[in-house]
Amino acid sequence: MNWSRAGESSATTFGEVREQLLNYFINPAIWTQLLVGGLKIIVIVIAGRLTIKIANKALHHILMAKEKGPLKFDTRRANTFGKLIGNIISYVVNFIMILMILNLFGFRLEPLLAGAGVIGLAVGFGAQSLVKDVITGFFIIFEDQFSVGDVIQINTYKGTVEEIGLRITKIKSWTGEVYIIPNGTISQVTNFSLYNSLAVVDVSVSYEEDIDKAMEVLKTSVHNFFEKSENIVLEPEVLGVQKLGASEVILRVIAECKPNTHAPVARELNGEIKRAFKDAGIAIPYPKLITYHRGEGAEETWKKSSTN
């Protein structure tokens, strides 16, 4: 008897719950409220995205106007601050969007903001590495140690700076890898983009050649190359004999170039000098091998190798 009453009671309770759920989902007021809330959320998200886009465009136009105006900013620092301020704008707008959406669901913002302050204080004490990253990033930007577009080397990583944030720095190597480095771990930085670089080219000439003639050909060829090159700042200088090697005389040429262009300039100079030496008939030494056969004298073998 008791079991039957319990079964009837549970069946009645299940039926009531099902009826309440059915009434909830078929209630037009509920669907209207959900539809209005969804539309409000969509409007908030679209407005936030438009705000970020408009702010970034306005920031870009401001920086471009400063570059063209009478008070010009350094392009390196302008790019760095542009990306940094753009990130800050994105964070702030997204945070405001989240607060507005929570407010639509009935959450009170005052306790949330107070709780966020307490949580931020706790994170500040617990996440010391994060605080170190932020402080180091601030001083990197403030002291202008490097900027977006610079070619730098951080510890063992070398590449072009893609982004500088308060927490991390992104650099891209010439082979395409992107290194994401926490600012707090940056202990040593080499910047290759601040000052002009120096291209050093060593040219080998055979001992049989006239050194004075070779140096004159060098001076003429590097002068012609300087006339048509856009990366060389000053006319290349032929220093003279750098070293007397085992089978060659090494002549050295130096050229002051724009920042971080010494490698392509050195390659182009090597090609220009090779063509000039070929036209002038100046031989570039290469390894030679003389084989002595048993039963032959050294003088006879030398004559054979000379005739060959």
UniProtKB/TrEMBL annotation:
Organism: Paenibacillus thalictri
UniProt GO cellular component terms: plasma membrane
Gene3D superfamilies in the record: 1.10.287.1260, 2.30.30.60, 3.30.70.100
Localization per record: Cell membrane
Signal sequence extent: none
Record's protein name: Mechanosensitive ion channel family protein
Mechanosensitive ion channel MscS C-terminal domain segment(s): 200-284
Described function: May play a role in resistance to osmotic downshock.
Homology family: Belongs to the MscS (TC 1.A.23) family.
TM spans (from-to): 30-52, 84-106, 112-131
Domain spans labelled Mechanosensitive ion channel MscS: 130-193
